[in-house]
Design goal:
Blueprint (H helix, E strand, L loop, with lengths): L1 H25 L8 E6 L10 E13 L5 E3 L4 E4 L6 E4 L6 E3 L11 E6 L5 E4 L6 E6 L3 E8 L11
Length: 158
């Protein structure tokens, strides 16, 4: 009897969370032809306002180690009609740019993950919704978590 009661209570607690995650994905359509959908569900945190997620989009390319490279392109935030949920879309990536340091042509090239140029793309941390990113086939999506504490620093008068 006790085991049944505990199992029922556990089901009542977990079932809404599981259905919420499944319902949230209904808002995000499958990727169109030539595109890939990446989905990230972040863990629940005590104070999520102290966290951010950095989206990092790029490709792994064989290159020299002497130069710095980047891809052209941008991440667009779009709102899904009828749901109000954000999705992030990269429609095109390239061309690749970089520094022009002379490199010995006999040096072996190594695989390097080259990202979109520009500032880091930080978004709000929200464990209640998946982070969904659509990119062209062959493009990778990485992420980095940023955090801080509640302490702030007061500006001095200038």
């Amino acid at each position: 009897m006790k085991l049944t009661l505990i199992a029922s209570l556990l089901f009542l607690v977990l079932a809404p969370q599981m259905s919420l995650a499944a319902d949230n994905m209904k808002a995000f359509p499958p990727a169109e032809q030539g595109m890939v959908r990446y989905v990230l569900q972040v863990d629940e945190k005590e104070n999520e306002s102290l966290f951010r997620v950095e989206l990092i989009v790029g490709k792994t390319v064989l290159l020299d180690d002497a130069n710095n490279y980047f891809f052209g392109g941008e991440i667009e935030k779009k709102v899904i009609n009828g749901w109000g949920f954000p999705k992030y879309v990269v429609t095109d990536i390239g061309p690749m740019g970089g520094t022009l340091m002379a490199v010995d042509p006999n040096v072996k090239k190594t695989p390097r993950f080259i990202t979109l140029g520009g500032d880091p793309y930080l978004i709000r941390y929200n464990s209640r919704l998946p982070i969904v990113v659509y990119v062209p086939e062959g493009v990778e999506v990485h992420y980095r978590l940023w955090s801080t504490d509640k302490k702030s620093i007061k500006f001095d008068k200038g």
